[in-house]
Amino acid sequence: MKKIIVVLFCSLLVVSCGKKTPRKQPPVSTDYTLAQLDSIGKAYTPEIGTYGGTVWIPLGADPDGFCPATSTSAYSNSVMGYIFEGLVELDIATLTFTPRIAEKWDVSDDGLQWTFHLRNDVFFSDGVKLSAYDVAFTFNDVIYNKKIRSGLADNFKIKGKKITVTAVDSFTVTFTLPYPFAPFLTVAGMDIMPKHVYAKYAKDGTLESFLSSGTDPKNVIGSGPFILDKVELGQRVVMKRNPNYWKKDAKGNRLPYIDRLIMLIIKEPNVAMLKFKNGEIDQLSVQGEHYPILKPLEKEKGFTLYKVGPRWYDSFFTFNQNNQKNPKTGKFYLEEKKQKWFRNKYFRKACAHAINYQAMIEIIYNGLATPPDGVWGKHKGFFHNPNAPTYDYDVDKAKKLLAEQGFKDRDGDGFLEDSDGNLVEFTLITSAGVKIIQKMFEMVRKDLEKIGMKVHLNFVEFNNLIDKTNNTYDWDAVAYALGGIIDPHFGKSTEIYSSYRYIYNPKQKKPSYPWEARVAEIFEEAASEMDPEKRKKLYWEWQEIVMDQCLKVYMPLREVVLGVKNHFGNIHLTRYLGLEGAILHNMEEIYIKEPGAQE
After folding, report:
1. Could you report how far apart the first and last alpha carbons of the chain are, in Å?
2. Exposure of 325 by Cβ count < 10 A (0-12 exposed, 13-18 middle, 19+ buried)?
3. Are 505 and 21 spatial neighbours (Cβ–Cβ below 8 Å)?
């Protein structure tokens, strides 16, 4: 399944509603260049499969809920990608948009009105037919609902104005844009939610809690190929085949082929590797340290490993710059001394120069990684600014920057004090239960200690981490991984000062700095700029600003190596699998060649 609400291409895309070019299956191999993967991906055509069997895949943490409009978790989005679907979908081989719930669409001459003509054979999993009224409900009553905290509301506004969504009749819906909007088709990929099920909860603002991770699976109703069957937090998420799914293969057989999809909650990559090696899960994103273990076992164990290029998700740590007061207590969310440290860009730059990236590549990734390449790496293509600042490993430079800002070891204990005599001591939080993360940030801690900072590590459950950064603001520094987008606009909610997802200093009424105001302007201007080269220049300016501010200290870019069992048919390889990190991305087409034996 292609989760396109977080991904899109630039306005150079050719919008097409026609039939896809016939494609062939890839030859058996273990290694391809990106050019070869590109050719294979575009030549793919699905085979006619057979019914039956169960697919087992890993999920790195519990989902935080099942509301497409509010979830901030990649783990939740991974689950919901099989349950919900949008008007259009992203072709992962070409990064162009193709019809899904909508059969076709028309665009007015001025580009401001888009009319989508829906299929009339799409049903929600409870048997109710999906209509244009559900589309209008999803946008008007959920995304734009002020009672529902949806980060998508910012992404789906143009110069601060909403898109007008109107159901013309049961199978025709129009989107009227206040201004031209270059990446509009990604908006059309928003997961559609059933009005008859969720209208009550949207109206009273309880939709997010109604669809929390502990909800009855029967409450999660979508039109996708799978139905949520069971959620055992900390253990597994079970989905079953939707017998009434609208999509069919070339011979008219109703998809999907497989009976069940089971996502095992596996936080620790070492455990995931062992389960893949032993045949207990069917796909794996292979860590660098595991590659030399698994590679010699391909033939014996019946799996194949594929290198598919750099990961599209960026790993980093960042600092809390919140200078606001809690309205309930009247006290600052963050101590004033830490505000002075973390809001100082030279402090942040010193941290970036302190990290030994090459050592991390060798120790953590076993050489299967490259140095960090900034907020928009060159592997992401069109919008990459090669001139934006990056930060190499330079301990002397880091120390010099700190000294110039008044940070010195005044008592000779090996740790810095600020100009007021305060010990530079803080806590970095990140996800618990993952040894590779623990190892990585222990290296970060030691590197920062070498320049005189006393850093404590706190490993917390992922949902607790989300709560701290999005709700309580009780943190000093945090390590995250974000990404999965191929147009900067859809990272807007994490980049503008007024958004609650702007984790450095969220929901500001006014920008703290002129550059924050300029970044907000850039995102507004770029969204409605239809000239691709002009859009690129705007996003180049954004990259120069945020990299100069060093808002994030980026970790190396991991090369994505995907493993999959050989008993599957319709494996669709493309050069863009590093975007999704899953080789069984087209789950509705996947079939098991011998499902009886597999069971």
Report:
1. 23
2. exposed
3. no
Residue 543, SS3?
A: helix
Distance between alpha carbon 424 and the CA centroid of its chain, in Å? Answer: 33
Question: What percentage of the chain has pLDDT greater than the value 70?
Answer: 94
Q: What is the DSSP string of 414-459?
A: SS-B-TTS-B-EEEEEEESS-HHHHHHHHHHHHHHHHTT-EEEEEE
Contacts of 497 (CB under 8 A, 6+ apart): 505, 508, 511, 512, 516, 517, 519, 520
- 34, containing H or E segment: helix 34-43
pLDDT, average across residues 75-100 = 92
Between these two residues, 252 and 311, which has the higher pLDDT value?
252
**CB-CB contact of 256 with 590 (8 Å):** yes
Confidence of residue 595 (pLDDT cuts 50, 70, 90): low
Q: In terms of residues, how long is the chain?
A: 599
433 φ/ψ sector (left φ>0, alpha ψ -120 to 50, else beta): left
What CATH number was assigned to the domain covering residues 4-302+566-598?
3.40.190.10
Classify domain 313-557 at the CATH class level.
Answer: alpha beta
What is the pLDDT averaged over residues 211-219? 95
Sign of the dihedral through C-alpha 12, 104, 254, 260: positive
Listed in order, the ranges of the chain carrying CATH 3.40.190.10 are 4-302+566-598
> Rounded to an integer, what distance in angstroms lies between the CA atom of residue 224 and that of residue 424?
51
**What single-letter DSSP state applies at residue 290?**
G
The boundaries of every CATH 3.10.105.10 domain in the chain are 313-557
Alpha helices in 152-297 (DSSP H): 152-155, 184-188, 195-203, 207-210, 269-277, 291-294
Residue found by looking up tokens 């309880």 in the block = 206
339 phi and psi angles, rounded to 5 deg = -55, -45
Distance between CA atoms of residues 234 and 60, nearest Å: 10
Q: What is the 3-state secondary structure (H, E, C) of 480-495?
A: EEEECCCCHHHHHHHC
Mapped onto helix, strand or coil, the DSSP state of residue 168 is strand
Are the beta carbons of 218 and 111 closer than 8 angstroms? no
The structure's pTM equals 0.78
pLDDT beyond 60 at 548: yes
For residue 549, what are the contacts with CB-CB under 8 A and spacing of at least 6? Answer: 345, 348, 515
